[in-house]
Amino acid sequence: MSKAAVVVMADTDSHENMGRMLNALELAKEYKESNEDVMLIFDGAGAKWVPELEKKDHKLHNHYNAIKDNVSGVCSFCANAFGVKNAVQSSGVQLLDEYEGHPSLKQYLDKGYHVVTF
User: Do residues 109 and 7 lie in contact, with contact meaning Cβ atoms separated by under 8 Å?
Assistant: First the structure.
């Protein structure tokens, strides 16, 4: 049994990046359906995805809702830098700042998680 921390760094600005987001959601869903431990983390420009995915008319909204309880959070520094901090907070998704304002990926590695980035 493996554990995965899926990190989304893809921006929201292109069809290619939407594909990366979908692949991250699919991996998280596959882990969840296999009853394995998975966390989804939004970092860098990926912080911009949460407000988009919260929109009911977004193409990936249902995929996001299927794994929303596995969202660990969004980088606090990046949410602020990309201007989405208030929207992330309004969504109820946690802001992560364990290491100098950023999520600590080391904590996941220390706990035996595989870190997969999109």
Answer: no
By the 8 A CB rule, do 87 and 51 touch?
yes
Tokens representing 25 are 């959601």
CB contact at 8 A, 5 and 39:
yes
Average pLDDT over residues 82-96: 97
Whether residue 1 is predicted with pLDDT greater than 90 in this model: the reply is no
Q: Find out whether 48 and 91 touch, Cβ atoms under 8 Å.
A: no
What one-character DSSP code corresponds to residue 27? H
Element (H, E) at 80: helix 76-81
Query: In terms of DSSP H, where are the helices of the chain?
Result: 15-33, 49-53, 61-67, 76-81, 85-91, 105-110
Of 32, 99, 23, 18, which is closest to residue 71 (Cα–Cα)? 32
Taking the whole predicted model, whether its pTM rises above 0.70 is answered as yes
Domains in the chain, ordered, with CATH?
Answer: 3-117 (3.40.1260.10)
Q: Are 74 and 91 in contact (CB under 8 A)?
A: no
